[in-house]
Specification:
3-stranded antiparallel β-sheet; two-stranded antiparallel sheet; mainly alpha; 58% helix
């Protein structure tokens, strides 16, 4: 009678470990490839620390901030800034620091009276108005307002180079695909035509308590 040789316990453990390692590699191939990465855009890393530091800053100036929504909004704008940079190279447009500073000065002058009535500095007042907008909220930490405005001005100049909205949509999608944008699933998924799409249930981005304690 032929005897069937059973795998020895140690060999079974080695095989199980190898299978687990293979599974880990398979999963990590689908996700941003570094711990603490919120997204990868054109090979450049956007860190979770960058996202969360902006949200912690916003918590100090925006009442009743929804931190999950804010994290997704911050990440969306950080990704879009890189998309606009890519399109700016394509269409040979640029925005100088002096132009950003001049535009900010104009904005601060326009809101100076409202800011004074609200007992806020013009910068904080603008940040609050952006975050609380009922049309298209933008979550911009005070220390990043100039970077955000730079991206907005760049987007306007790119738009001026494109003849119509249908072409603009195709150009935007093409730039997204070229950059091969990958988002950490805790923040949602990136759709080339629609941008950052939150997961059902708000994803796994940090809660207000977690942000405050980190």
């Amino acid at each position: 009678m032929t005897r069937t040789t059973r795998p020895r316990p140690r060999l079974r453990r080695v095989a199980a470990a190898a299978a687990a390692v293979g599974l880990t590699f398979a999963l990590s191939a689908c996700l941003p490839d570094q711990v603490g990465t919120a997204a990868i855009v054109g090979g450049d890393r956007v860190s979770e620390a960058d996202v969360q530091s902006q949200v912690r800053e916003l918590q100090h100036v925006v009442p009743n901030l929804d931190t999950a929504t804010a994290q997704q909004g911050v990440l969306r704008d950080l990704i879009l800034a890189k998309v606009y940079d890519e399109l700016a190279r394509k269409y040979h447009v640029h925005v100088t620091d002096a132009e950003v500073a001049s535009q900010l000065d104009q904005i601060y002058t326009q809101v100076q009276q409202q800011a004074r009535q609200a007992h806020r500095t013009p910068k904080v007042y603008v940040v609050q108005q952006l975050a609380q907008s009922s049309q298209q909220a933008a979550y911009v930490a005070p220390s990043h307002l100039d970077d955000w405005l730079h991206a907005q001005l760049l987007a306007q100049r790119i738009q001026a180079k494109i003849p119509d909205s249908a072409t603009a949509s195709r150009v935007f999608v093409a730039a997204n695909k070229k950059l091969d944008i990958t988002v950490n699933p805790r923040y949602g998924t990136w759709n080339p035509s629609k941008g950052l799409q939150a997961e059902v249930g708000g994803g796994l981005s940090k809660t207000q308590a977690q942000l405050s304690s980190s």
